[in-house]
Every structure is written in structure tokens, then in C-alpha cells.
């Protein structure tokens, strides 16, 4: 063959394989309202930045007539590219090829790009759209999953790992996304579960649709398996791109700094907070009044909304925010919100992102269901995560900081570097009503008018203890500040802690309560 | 996502009530009920393979009341104390979810 012929031959081969499962299968994929694996990658990455590897890989299965089947690329596309110039490794399962089922070579391709991402210290993005294990390949397919999980674990905390669920992801396959840092789901398209509706029906006789069992909304709102929820695939890709701008390429770097910007919020920050401590407000308004450009990128918006987590920038530098949300369940800590906050704190710590905590919480959620669900061990995760974190840790107490919640929300005692409190802060062992009932029980019981006496004693307690000055007198609070000073002081705190060096004793790893 | 019912409710944490929104998960949570020791419940979802007792029968602690097949295992459900079978709530071949009352003793 002449050189020209060789090149033409290569082009022909490429064209054929790039069609994946063929035109019919692609039509079917589109009819399900889904993009193809290739178009997803191209939509997500910078224009013309995608370079594909292992295009010509073929499957190895020989049993059950599989030797006669051609599975292009073995149902997965892998490669490298950039997002806003940041290098990433990516794989996308191709549902048009044998339902994106995972066989030995399919898994080899995925582990190859994972190894590459880890070696190059760049983020890994996995797009999941697969019917599950390729049954014909038997234990080889299980081996494939296991090798992926192992790499997810080894890479955890070294490079950012992002999972995008754009189709079914069922059985063992769900555990790769579950081991990664951020999971993205799309309404009506993502389906994740361990056992599907048909098994549940056979075993239990319970009927449930895939959507109700493990659809995008379920994982975004009920299970907490998903971190980002989008209405469409394109919206989902925008979210991923935005996330990439906030995080570093790996754990030895800082996130890229952006030009500093003043918040768009123009008003009095103290006006956001009602004077009556029993009235709610949206703590996200406070965050938006503080961060650059008032741009707050919330994570897990719908799961455990009684705590708010997410990224913003302070003078251009990525900062993680953890804030109690008085608008929902009065901002209590419970099993779900503890789990949500703790994991985010550990993420920030692993990737060198300073943490700002905004505190306004009345305590832990009372209830049999909470106690029996293990609020002790879940709540302990927050203590562990804050204590363990060595990135700059700054707390602003806005209003209530009662009891265990005061300790848990990045208190001085857990190693906070800066403790600020607004003059509206109430730092006390419990709410005034509860405290007065206990401390002044005798006086109240013996009074002629116990209700009036209780009222009196509650007022007495509020005046003496429901303020930041008792804690400030002990040095537990560094500074009681005017709300309008908040942003400037936070910027200062981050600036002066940029060389923070908090050495801890050597250990293989801790034993966090999970 | 969408259409959250924006309705503030009184929400008590210790002695103070706060105005706040509830989550769907919180609103749908199961209220705790005191367990009744006379009620034998399925401890795992499965299928009732065989009933070994009839209503009115006297049973001793440890007697097998029925066989519950779950996750490919034949599980014996035993009487926790000496007593009498007051009522049987299931039939052979029936599928039961976890926590359903299957037999009441007295």
C-alpha cells in the first residue's frame, strides 16, 4: 500500500469505529433524550481539545457467541482534553455499544485513563451510561469493577474525581461514582440503584418505577448520593465546567486565582438578619453579600438543606463555605447535614481550600429517628473533619451558637484560626428558655406565678449570657465585629493565613466515624 | 429543583420554637411506635414458605412458627416466649416486606 492508502485506510477504520453501536443504536439513544458518548465529551471539553486513546480496542469475550460480535471501542471512549484550559482525563461509556456494558477490555480502558490521570495529577471525569456488568464475560467483568474501585480509592484526595450519571448506573457500577468527589445527575436521565425495580418486585412485591427508586431527584434530595442536579445534559456540563474553575488540578496545588471582585450585593448585610432570633432568613444571602461578585456555587443544594455548603471566591481565591441554614429545620445539625458538611470539609482540606464557617444553629435535631439513625456517630464526623483540617479555618458566629453545635461548628476548641462574632451572637450552653428552666427551676417552681417568674428568669439569662462577650472575655472569640466589617476581616484572615503550617503527628490515616 | 412549599412552621428545638421550613424527608419520616412484644414481625423481607402453627395453638419459646425465605435462605421464625397463637396475618406463598406483623401471640 502507498502511504496515502494507509492514511485513507486509517480514516475509514476510525470513521467506522467512531460510530459506536451504529446509526440505529444512536437513533435509539437520541430517542431516549440522551446525547451520545462522543457528543457528550465534545460538549464538555474545550473546542478541539479532545484526544482519544484506545479507539481500536476490541473485546475479548469468546463464550456465548460473543466471538462473532464486534463491539467498537468495547463500549467506552477514553481520552484527554481541557476545560477552560485545565487538563482533564475523561471516559464516557457508550450505551450504543452493547448497552455500555462493562467487560474486561472496557474496564482496562477505564483503568488506563485513571492511571494516566493519577500519574499526570490532573482531574478525572467519568461519564456513566451503562447497563452494568457484561454477563457473558462473567467474573472478568467483576474484576473490572474492582480494579476501578481500587483506583478511585487510591486517587481519592490526590486528584479531583468527578462522576456524571447520564443513563443507568446500577448494581456494583454505582460504587465507582460513590467513591468519587462529586456526582452529577440529570433529571429523567440518571438512574442509580443497587437492586432495580424488577428485583424489588420479585423479592418484596413492592412496585416502584426506576425514577422513583433511583432517579436524579431521589439522589439529589433524599439519598445525598448526588451533589449536582441539572434539568438537561447541557446544563449539567455547564455545572461541571464551573466546578472545574473552583478546584485545583491536584492536592499539591491551589485552585487557580481569579481577578478579585467586589460583591454585587449593595446593602446593609445586617439587614438580612431579623432581629427576632426565632425568625428565619436565607443564609445564602449572607454568603452572597460576602463573596466576590456575589457568586456562590452551591453544592448539594437539595439534600439536607439545613446546612449550606459550596464554593465562592474571596479576593479571587477559592474558598469553601459551610453555613447553618435557619430557613430550613431552623438550621439544626442532624445525621444528613452532618454527613454533608463533614465530607465537604474533608474535600476542602484535601485540596488546600480555606474554609469559612457561618454559624447560626440552635443545636441538634431531637427525635427517636435521629438517635436511632446514629446522630451520635454522624454528628461526630463534623467534629472529626474540622479538627483534622489543617487549611485556614475561619468562623463567623452570626446569631445562635448553642451547646454541642457551638463546639461542632469550627469552634476555637477544634482549632479554628480566627473566631469572629457579630454583636447579635448568642454563645451559650443552650437556648435561654431551656437554660432558665434548669438553672432557676427552684425559683420558678416556688414562685406564686411560675410563668411570670420563668419569663423573668429567661430575660435575666438572655441579658447575662445570650451574647458574644462571655466567650470573648475568655478569648474563645477573637473579635466581636460589626456585620459590615465581615468581608474585609475575612479577606484579611485568609491573606495572613496563606502560609499556615499545621503539622500533625504521623499516622497511616485516622479512624473517622464512618 | 422546583416548587417547594414555602410555608414557615413552628419548629421546637429544646424549649424554643423557631419559624422555619421543613424538608420533605423530615415531613415524611416514620414516627416511632413502641414495639408490642406479642407481635412477631418479619425481620427481613421475603416469602412465607410454610406455616408450622395454626391459630389457637400453644407454643413454647424456641418453637418454629413459620419458614420465611429471604435472600435464598430458609429462615426459621421462632416463638420468643411460651404462649398461644392469637392470630396469623399471612398465608403460605405470601411476600412480606420488612417489619410487617406476621403472627400475634398471647
Characterization of the model:
The complex is a heterodimer of chains A (514) and B (106). In chain A, strand 14 (393-402), helix 15 (403-408) and strand 15 form a beta-alpha-beta unit. In chain A, 39% of the residues lie in helices and 17% in strands. Chain A folds into two domains: 3-246, 2-enoyl-CoA Hydratase, Chain A, domain 1; 269-431 and 466-496, 2-enoyl-CoA Hydratase, Chain A, domain 1. In chain A, 49% of the residues are buried. In chain A, the strands form three sheets. In chain A, strands 10, 11, 12, 13, 14, 15, 16 and 17 form an eight-stranded mixed sheet that branches. Chain A has helices spanning 3-18, 23-31, 37-44, 104-120, 139-155, 175-179, 197-204, 210-214, 216-223, 233-246, 283-290, 335-350, 368-373, 375-388, 403-408, 432-439, 441-446, 450-465, 469-473, 486-496, and strands at residues 51-53, 76-83, 86-93, 124-128, 161-165, 168-170, 182-186, 191-193, 228-230, 297-299, 307-314, 317-324, 355-361, 393-402, 418-421, 426-428, 479-480. The model of chain A has no long low-confidence stretch (mean pLDDT 94). Chain A is an alpha/beta fold. Chain B is mostly beta strands and 106 residues long. Chain B contains one helix and ten strands; from the N terminus they run E-E-H-E-E-E-E-E-E-E-E. Chain B is elongated. The A-B interface holds A 203-206, 217, 220-222, 229, 278-280, 302, 304-306, 326-332, 336, 362-363, 365-369, 372, 430-434, 437 and B 1, 8, 11, 13-26, 29-30, 32, 45-46, 70, 95, 97.
